[in-house]
Input
Amino acid sequence: MPQFWAGVDAGKAHHHCTVIDSDGTKVLSRKVANDEAELLDLLADVNALDEGVLWATDLNSGGGALLITLLLDHGQELVYIPGRTVHHASGSYRGDGKTDAKDAFVIADQARMRRDLQPLAAFDEIAADLRILTARRTDLGADRTRAINRLRDQVLAYFPALERAFDYSTSKAALVLLTGYQTPTALRRLGRARLETWLRARKVRNAARVAQTAIEAAQAQRTIVRGEKTAAAVVERLAKEVIALDAELAETDAAIEGRFREHEHAEVITSLPGIGTLLGAEFIAATGGDMAAFASADRLAGVSGLAPVPRDSGRISGNLHRPRRYSRRLMRVFYMSAQVSIRCCPASKAFYERKRAEGKRHTQAVIALARRRVNVLWAMLRDGRSYVAVPPVRLAAAA
Output
């Protein structure tokens, strides 16, 4: 049982640390720069109070990464308190103002009183790399979606027939087309045969069909919309941007797969139906791949948002809801893998259909399946065993 609790309100340039004792009395309060030398001095001063110190911080990455690394490397016990939790808890403390010192005190006091906080553990090098790569892939996917939406909106404004003709989110051929020709007049002037030749030279599949579709769209519109020239230039840049993003996404996926395959649990994780390289990498990035941080499958389910919590009040009981605070990344891993497993795993499909027969909606049935798969994956990692689908053994008929 710790004798002191150190709360750190982390920031980009500076942190504020407040240490309290078992009575909640403040024994140290200091602003320190986000600098290795100053952080080591703070660590020495806090440990001089007592060796039994529990640290708590409201950042688990970004500006708090150096502090977290120093604490874990020096064997300090550290827990994470989300900023939202700190914000809501601050309302019950004296004073209406928001200061770094007050937030640090709240963090320390919450760590002193609560027993449900998730400890922070040191990630190995592979898990840390996957955390960076999967976060980058998420950003690239969001950038690609925004660029395609802007492109479609721009094309729709001056050439609606062409906007309807292709699915720009899946058709690389349509994007290549827009890097060269964006207006009805330019397409009609070029003609179908020359457009097909131009597309083939750029290794576009189904060049004849793409050329025919584009020329038909151009023949359907003779009116030149005001601003067409400028809009076409913007569309050309956006098409090139999406193609570049696709190339970087492919490179990132290859880097993720290569790094993930080096992890000791990669084979075990991907043996579970529905989990491939990307979802497996996201699982490692969110958990570190070490189930020692989760005392049980129930704890992993709780962190993933798959264990309902009661919101009983008065005469109302059994009112279960999804928790407000959980890991969205882990929820996505288990939910998406559950949906995929329904199509490729007979056992998962049978479980899903049974839940549907009980009257559950699709989302409820998938969440129930995801919860069950948490137990399976946790046990697989605990035992270091790959998934094996064992059909039920039928008893022989009595003679």
Q: What stands out?
A: The chain has a mean pLDDT of 90. DSSP finds 17 helices and eight strands in the chain.
